[in-house]
Amino acid sequence: MVLAGYCLAIVAGSLLGGSLPALVRMTHTRMQVIMSLVAGLMLGVALFHLLPHAISQIGGTHAVDKAIAWVMAGLILMLLLLRSFHFHQHDFSVEEDEHQHHNPARGAHPLSWLGIAFGLGLHTLIDGVALGASVLGEVAGGSAGLVGIGVFFAIFLHKPLDALSITSLMQAGGWGTAARIRANLAFALLCPLGALLFYWGAGQLGDNRELVAGAALAFSAGVFLCISLSDLLPEVHFHSHDKVKLTLSFLVGIVLAYALGWVEPDTAHILQTTQ
Q1: For the chain, how many structural domains are there in total?
Q2: What is the pLDDT of residue 140?
Q3: Would you state the pLDDT for residue 66?
Q4: What is the pLDDT of residue 14?
Q5: Which of 59, 102, 147, 253 has the smallest set of CB atoms within 10 Å of its CB?
Q6: Of 125 and 241, which is predicted with more confidence?
Q7: Within a domain: residue 274?
Q8: Bridge partners of residue 226, in order along the sequence
Q9: Are 221 and 76 in contact (CB under 8 A)?
């Protein structure tokens, strides 16, 4: 099953991201370039894939209005989560002499990772819903092949940054390797859990599954828009250095999101008119 393959890849990517502090020297510039790329990718996936898929699945004469209402709901919920838990602190890079960047994880409280982990846990479950809805919606529409590929790539490239946030704070708070591995594994499994539960649960709804999948896709588009525009981009472009490099990385992310449409099923964006 395509969804199972996506889930395994996301688990592997998330585990790798959480292990980065022990494997690679993550400099400030490298983190900023990655975040710019992911911001562009998530923005592109929201507008090129999730929203059109949602409108297609909802169908009917008021499909656009209904989809936009769900987009707004997703955006508002994610904004409230961001403001409540402050969990998208992605840049835990080491200092570079060139920029003298301050490492925000230094001096962290031993339990400061819990709030971030809780917020990111809710966030990653929503990502799982987005992935499950994307695959379910396209399968329900009669598509085959690489269904949900755009949403998968956005999540696959974003989850390592989230896992890195959790394990970096745990490391700064004095937690041992075994505890960080357990937390990293638990976090890595949340997105697949959300995806598989939604796919199975919505699949039991019979004729209503397209409508539910469409609403979930639109909701997820709002979540992706909020993350890219109100969280990742401001965090990246707050810095005055490497503007050209970061801008190009952002544009590459958007182009990649658009290009992923070339491997999507041809019927992915066909509007359903029977609902």
Answers
A1: 1
A2: 61
A3: 93
A4: 87
A5: 102
A6: 125
A7: no
A8: none
A9: no
| The pair of three-digit structure tokens given for residue 68, joined into one six-digit string | 């936009």
Neighbours of 118 (CB within 10 A): 14
Residue 214 has pLDDT above 50, yes or no: yes
Encoding tokens for residue 147?
A: 């269904």
Q: DSSP for the chain, please give it.
A: -HHHHHHHHHHHHHHHHHHHHHHS--BHHHHHHHHHHHHHHHHHHIIIIIHHHHHHHH-STTHHHHHHHHHHHHHHHHHHHHHHH-------PBP-TTT----TTTT--TTHHHHHHHHHHHHHHHHHHHHHHHHHHHHHTT--SSTTHHHHHHHHHHHHHHHHHHHHHHHHTT--HHHHHHHHHHHHHHHHHHHHHHHHHHHTTGGGHHHHHHHHHHHHHHHHHHIIIIIIHHHHHTS-SSHHHHHHHHHHHHHHHHHGGGGS-TTTTPPP---
Structure tokens given for 63: 């499909």
Q: 275 in a domain, yes or no?
A: no
Range of the domain at 147: 2-263
81 within a domain of the structure (yes/no): yes
Residue 196 scores a pLDDT above 60 = yes
| 161 within 8 A of 32, measured Cβ to Cβ | no
What token pair was written down for 252? Answer: 């590459």
* 122 lies in some domain: yes
Residue 170 has pLDDT above 60, yes or no: yes
Instruction: Tell me the average pLDDT across 34-56.
Output: 87
Q: Indicate the length of the chain as a whole number.
A: 275
Q: Evaluate whether 103 touches 94 at the Cβ level (below 8 Å).
A: yes
Mean pLDDT of the chain: 77
Distance in Å from the first CA to the final CA of the chain: 28
pLDDT at 120: 77
- pLDDT number for residue 247: 85
